[in-house]
């Protein structure tokens, strides 16, 4: 794949005229997908796709097109030549772009991710063995993801990673199910069995009569998956310099210093340890780390090339949307093994769902508890809870009400596959909060 892309990049270079610059960005994958229901394979399929974005730049103007390649050299070169001819005709009709910025100092790189994965058949056999006698519902995805960048200035960047992502539920009845996930570049059978054992234990508790709670504020432990939902919502516009400078960030009060989060909260974009490529579509290399929040205070921002040009600052290789792709939340000091004793009495929340802002400028969010939420008394799980809605502010949840974070963190890979498998990831701990506001 790498040789094919570089060969195609050389052809694109040959089609570039004087005073023109061409950029090429490849997003490709060879993926397998398996859908489970009642612990049986209901759908299985494979996807091999090569998507290429070609940009033609001249005189502060840029035209681009995204095309699907066949992998056949002669056909793809003919298609690319036709696209470049079309872009060249369109370029003259476009206005100058005052914020156009692309890398003109070639910086080549190569990353071939190290992985240790059994065959898909071996992993799926373990899944079905662990799900014996259960109504296991889930989606398993695995395979190789490729990203590549090349320009007519001689820059070449390559990124290749093998990984898997399995999200599943053990279904009981009605709206009662336990959700869990396992993802990464190294499959560990023991670790997977431990996760499945946790799901089985919680499934048995789901069979007990559900406890109904009145709206109010409750002490709660949010598992890493639930914390990730909160952090993921914050990623919608909180960490990009454009939203911050335009006063549209949900964390605007953090940025102006009028509010702060708990001193245990530190967030950074950690491209060095993520699964996303270390370069972006304009050819800039990403900074290995970008501090976003340090000890509860704003520490920085993701800066795309366009924002860098607009605000006359240095970019740090952020993508066009200035959204995190490898978010890293610092660990705390609490032991996850003793978290129920530390919680004592309150809510054990495994997942949160359907989050959105109820007051964006106050960073207030709402959502549902849904899967695997339990009532705990004296450090012991007593009963499942019915689905409830929460409405709370990040300044409370991750501020004054935060009692601590766990030492252990989970690596959560983005399971999105709309158009292509995502390379987004997050590394997050669990969180104990003093008051979690349930509204109905």
Q: How many beta strands in the DSSP annotation?
A: 20
Largest sheet: 10 strands, mixed
Supply the number of structural domains: 2
The gyration radius over C-alpha positions equals 24 Å
Describe this protein's structure.
It contains ten helices and 20 strands. It is of the alpha+beta class. It folds into two domains: 2-198, PmbA/TldD fold (2-Layer Sandwich); 216-438, no CATH class. Strands 8, 9, 10, 11, 12, 13, 16, 17, 19 and 20 form a ten-stranded mixed beta sheet that branches. Strands 1, 2, 3, 4, 5, 6 and 7 form a seven-stranded mixed beta sheet that branches. Strand 14 (353-359) and strand 15 (364-368) form a beta hairpin. The longest helix is centred in the N-terminal third of the chain and has 19 residues, at 73-91. The chain is globular and about 75 Å long. It starts with a helix and ends with a strand. The model has no long low-confidence stretch (mean pLDDT 96).
Give a quick rundown of the structure.
By secondary structure, the protein is α+β, with helices and mostly antiparallel strands. It is 23% helix and 39% strand.
List the main descriptive attributes of the protein structure presented here:
440 residues, PmbA/TldD fold, seven-stranded mixed β-sheet, 20 strands, globular
SSE topology sketch:
Elements: H1 2-14, E1 21-37, E2 40-58, E3 61-69, H2 73-91, E4 109-112, H3 120-130, E5 136-151, E6 156-173, E7 176-184, H4 189-206, E8 216-222, H5 224-234, H6 241-245, H7 252-255, E9 267-270, E10 289-294, E11 297-298, H8 305-311, E12 326-329, H9 339-343, E13 346-349, E14 353-359, E15 364-368, E16 373-377, E17 380-384, E18 389-393, H10 394-400, E19 402-413, E20 425-438
Parallel strand pairs: 4-6, 8-13, 12-20
Antiparallel strand pairs: 1-2, 1-5, 2-3, 5-6, 6-7, 8-20, 9-10, 9-12, 10-11, 13-16, 14-15, 15-18, 16-17, 19-20
